[in-house]
Structure formats: structure tokens, C-alpha cells
Design brief:
The chain is an alpha/beta fold. Helices cover about 35% and strands about 25% of the residues. β1, α2 and β2 form a beta-alpha-beta unit.
Length: about 250
């Protein structure tokens, strides 16, 4: 199209310069909220013509949205299972970019007097976990099963702990909030969730490395999106700068 029209008409017809580019849409696990908020700023500084729109939720919710046709450019999951669920929508191979581990948390006031993992099986304790479909919920149940085969714990430990389950949440941030607000006596979350700000409101009960679970986070470019811009975002996540951000937020390298 020629642009020899009057200025107002030229703009209306698209001759007034480049049109604004659509935001890059990134679907990311809720546990990545703070880290990806910072990585987004790095990406936008490197790509001043692009903005990033983050959709943060449980990986299972995001995968189901994608499977139902939701538009997105990048998907970062908290486990491999939900990445595999949308494998047909992925361009190329997903890349593992971070790892995480689990901790138990209790409110700072600790009204139930929980000072060790064994106390999670006390009758009447109010335990909150993410639902089994949520990555951290599956990891939590796996860790409890591992503790049950540790000779320091009774063989029915996992069953007794799960009998105290009073709520199953849709993402890890909801588990954190319930414990932080004193609506539960204990919960199991990612180590990366215990930020400096949260540490004022909760106490951590460590899970032994031998019984802990390694959470692997994959990220992928989605075939139906803006693949070039998506690859640039993934490149920032996996770059030394991106990994430094992730480390500051409690994630381990892949």
C-alpha cells in the first residue's frame, strides 16, 4: 500500500509507522511468580518493543487451558507431567531450567507446637497441601511416602499425616497463604516460597534430603505463538542473568 495519503488517513490505513506489537504471553507456574516477574523486566529491557503478559497459576490449570486452545507463546511448568500433557502444542524440545525442593512450614506463632516432621501425624493437626493434580501436591505426597520408609518414621506415617488434611489447594501460593494467615497448622511448599518477607510469618521444618523430592521445571516455546519472541524469552530465562535471578529466588540450577 502506498503512503501518499493525508496524515490522518495514512494512520488509519496503517501508514503511520509500525503498529504496536502484541504482548508476549507467558504461562508460568505459580511458584515462579516473583522470579518471572524479575526476568520479565530483563526481557523487556533487552526487547524494548515488546511487553510480557504473565499468566500465573497451578501448572495443571495452565496445561488444561492450553489443551482447550488458550493462546500463549511460552509455557513454564513446575513438573514434566503437565508439560507432557501439552506436548503436541510445543515447538521443539522443552528445556529444564530450574530445580526446587520441598519444606514444611508452620505459622510463626506455631499454636500446634510443630517442631519436627513427626508432629505432622499428630491427631487433630490441621494440614494443608496442594491437590494431588498440582505439581507441589504430587511432590508432597511422594515425599511423605519416602519418609514412611525411613526407619526413623513409622510405616503408616504418610497415612496418618494425610488423615490430618483439611484443605487441598489449586496452587502452592494458596498453601502458603493459609499457613501464613494461621488457617492451618502446617503445610508443604517449595523452598523457594519461603522468601525473606514470608520468613517473618512462618517457621520452616526441613525435610531430609534423602526423603525430599527434586522438582524439575521445564520451559517450552508454543508452536501457535510468536515463536521468535518466545525463543528470545526462553533464552533470557536460561541465560546467566536469568539463572542468577532464579538463584536469588531460591531455585537451584537444572
Amino acid at each position: 500500500m502506498r503512503c501518499g495519503y493525508p496524515a490522518i488517513l495514512a494512520v488509519a490505513l496503517g501508514c503511520g509507522g509500525d503498529a504496536p506489537r502484541a504482548p508476549l504471553t507467558v504461562f508460568a507456574a505459580a511458584s515462579l511468580t516473583d522470579a518471572f516477574g524479575e526476568i520479565t523486566l530483563v526481557y523487556e529491557r533487552q526487547n524494548p518493543d515488546r511487553t510480557v503478559r504473565l499468566n500465573l497459576a497451578g501448572s495443571q490449570q495452565l496445561a488444561l487451558q492450553l489443551a482447550q486452545g488458550a493462546d500463549a507463546d511460552v509455557f513454564a511448568s513446575a513438573d514434566l507431567r503437565w508439560m507432557q500433557h501439552v506436548r503436541s502444542r510445543v515447538a521443539g524440545e522443552p528445556v529444564a531450567f530450574a530445580r526446587n525442593r520441598l519444606v514444611a512450614i508452620v505459622p510463626a506463632a506455631n499454636p500446634a507446637g510443630v517442631t519436627s516432621l513427626e508432629h505432622l501425624s499428630r491427631p487433630g493437626l490441621r494440614l494443608v497441601l496442594a491437590a494431588a493434580a498440582v505439581p507441589v501436591g504430587a511432590y508432597s505426597r511422594d515425599a511423605l511416602g519416602r519418609l514412611a520408609v525411613d526407619p526413623r518414621f513409622p510405616t503408616d506415617f504418610a497415612r496418618r499425616v494425610l488423615e490430618n488434611l483439611v484443605s487441598e489447594e489449586e496452587n502452592v501460593k494458596a498453601v502458603v497463604a493459609k499457613v501464613q494467615l494461621g488457617e492451618a497448622d502446617a503445610g508443604i511448599v517449595y523452598a523457594s516460597d519461603v522468601t525473606a518477607a514470608l520468613a517473618r510469618d512462618v517457621r520452616v521444618v526441613e525435610i531430609p534430603e534423602a526423603s525430599n523430592v527434586t522438582a524439575t521445571y521445564p520451559i517450552a516455546v508454543l508452536a501457535a505463538g510468536d515463536t521468535a519472541a518466545a525463543r528470545a524469552f526462553v533464552a533470557v530465562v536460561t541465560s546467566p542473568a536469568g539463572r542468577a535471578v532464579l538463584a536469588r529466588h531460591g531455585f537451584r540450577p537444572p
